[in-house]
Give the backbone structure.
Amino acid sequence: MSATLPTPPGKVNHIGLEVIDYKGGRSTLCAGCGHNSISERIVECFYELGVEPTSVAKFSGIGCSSKSPAYFLGLAHGFNGVHGRMPAIATGALLANRTLLGLGVTGDGDTASIGLGQFMHLVRRNVPMIYVIENNGVYGLTKGQFSATADLGSTKKGGGAANDLQPFDCCALALQWGATFVARSFSGDKRQLQTILKTAIAHRGLSVIDVISPCVTFNDHEGSTKSYGYMRDHEEALQELDFVPYFEDISVEIAEGETMDVEMHDGSHLRLRKLSRDFDPTSRLAAMAALEAAEREGEILTGVLYLNTQKPDFLELLGLCEHPLATLPESRVRPSRAVLETVMEELR
Amino acid sequence: MPTPEASPSLSPPGSASPSLVNDFSIQVATVNGSGSQTANSVLMRALFQMGIPVSGKNMFPSNIAGLPTWFTIRASRHGYTGRRKEIDFLVAMNPETAREDVMKLAGGAAVVYDEPLKLGQLRSDLHFYPVPFDKLVGPVCPEAKLRKLVRNMIYDGVVAQLLSIDMQEVRTALAKQFGARKAKAADMNWGAAQVGFDYAARTFAKTDPCRAQRMNGTAGKIVIDGNSACALGCLFAGVTVVTWYPITPSSTLVESLMGYMKRFRTEPETGKATYAMVQAEDELASIGMAIGAGWAGARSMTATSGPGISLMSEIAGLGYYAEAPAVIFDVERVGPSTGLPTRTQQGDLLSTAILSHGDTRHPMYFPSSPEECFTMAIDAFDLAERFQTPVFVMTDLDLGMNNWMSDPFPYPEAPIRRGKVLTAEDLDRLGGFERYKDVDGDGVGYRTLPGTKHPKAVYFTRGSGHNEKAQYSEREEDYIHNMDRLAHKFETMRGHVPAPAVEMNPDAKIGLICCGSSHDAVRESRDQLRDEYGIQASYLRLKAYPFTPQLAGFIGRHQRVYVVEQNRDAQLLGLMRLELDVELLARLRSVRYYGGLPLDARTVTGEIVRQEGQ
């Protein structure tokens, strides 16, 4: 079920839309599922930033997570494709229409197992879209098998042998493959997830957001490392985050040395205030080291791990014309009779 | 490779050979990677420029360098362009295969060979022309590392002299091959060709019957391979998103397209592209991107071959069920599995027609010539958008990678048709729409493109069960209703795909049916049946699937109908089994060839004559 947001009726965002315009259908996921909280954050962020909902295209693969695009942004076209192949579908659609804001929602099975190759190449191409991994370490829709992100030693519901295979850390992998924005959050951390999602909306390039999103039915027990309880005890936030959209004034002074300010491509600002550790989110090496250290200490590190606003995205690299390819008129896509005659002459 | 022992025949050379003017096959046997392609193309072009109908077939290994390669040029004053099994004139340059190549020849054939191979001793019923290539190449090519390439041009000169090919045409062909920017290379090769010509002129007395003579059989024609022709079709179809994964024999389709797009679809004012081309990580991704792009409104395509088709299966079903357009070129090669990657087959007909799990049906085009590669590529994009579904263009390695003589391509006169797409203005007028509702009775719903700025434009696309409003549904009646509409949509397509080419013979008791690249052999076989066996045959060449009513009508008018195809399991006939009446099926006979070489008329004629009991 979509959240009832504390917004009085009639209140509109800066493009004149109400929050209802950003909601979707009723969720069919379990009550308490982390994915529902993520859907709520998406609704809030797109509403608050005043993103035109019809300019968004939603993409997903197969799994519980991949059902969720039906539960937010009901005015945006969506494509729920096949298992693990969302990146290809999304890439094609964004090539066809570069004005679309791509929003992909996937799970740990969809991304870290069957779709690992497509995830990897999506990162490699820096396709400009938001890629949210709703990570619960378990295959929910097929009733509770381990996924490739299940931690070493974690157990299934009702016991049985502990997982003895090394998990994939989607953030570490994305960093390794050259991702331009990598963040981790927790579905229960409303403020942090909101800020990260808003940053992703402003980011030009691929945004990889790994959200630990507990499965209340199959993976919320003792022995799970993706449970609400485990996250409460082990989440370690890297920064305190604040997002100032391009249409708002930046009035608050920032304290030297304590806070870092990153200007996004659209003129918005991401502000990161250091917490316990010294961490530079523009250094890939620092991000890798922090993940490694956190893993050794048994902590789940959340926050902005890496942000690079300079690298060109895939559409830029391809040198596409401004007008969406999908709707170019015939005069711009069918060469003239003279061109055909030239080619025929060359073949004589 | 075992070499058969020489078994000289006693018949004297040339005793039974009639003069073969403009009716012979030249085979050049070389080693892969030795650079013989230029020499072979030049030879073929020179004949073409003399007005002689000509075709070239490259039989090459799946290898970069070192394995044997054969290139066959057929000159046919009758205009037959299919493969001919018999070789009249062999150029034996490959020591590995030379003995076997010579032993396979029919008596009376001619052999130009590298002198040290001493092939002249093998048989006494052939015309031998030994040439000391290494001795001749030195003076014309001072650079030792280029000699391997340039020595090939010497055989062009020798063959030109022996066959009376006009050397000026060789020169013109060379200039065309190298272009103005590589004039120096053209000069060096021209020198080598002249050396070969002069050597042959002063050394050999011609004894073989093959001869070229100027005629008027190629005026206005072009020479092109099917892959380039498909690429040109895509260019003029207005393709905007091209995704692919390299695989022989389809890679050159996309590579050729890349050249054309860069040249003709980069906007001069901005230097920006009106297209996107992406080399994907595999065929799952290439078809995924094509379907995603088609869904978002692009004219999208991908090209592949058998193994890629297998990998595309799941998303082909998504395209069918979610109803997103894309055009997929399948340049077929020999399967199953890796099979023979550089040999030809019509081996994907059945699997492509029903590609994916569940009840799926896909339309297919069967071009049989470069001209049809061009026109059908354009039609395929219109059909894909008209019916909002993946459309397959089935060619093969023979059509795709070999050079063919063709009429120049006609400029598409009809405007590009984008199908049933509703704009924001349409939605204002209509007040809304239901994505999968059959409003027009043709099984095709109206769609909107993502990004359409209208609150009623939205619909949710899914590969899972859905109702007319595109809502998730597992209801029995919704599922059946949707599947029946998709079946009806496929039925509607019968009226929108090209009808077969039919040549009725009122005296014929038998009919011949084929599709695609089998056409050239079947056309020639039909003449052989008539001229050599007195068997009259009507002919129907299928251009597309789903089949149109002409097929049943044709079968019904003949006692026996031979379905000729290039695969083991009679796949084309199998597709007919899925929909024709038992009474008609009983008339069908099967003629199959599946050895991986282009189909030849003699094989078809022999099989039909055998089945006819003559």
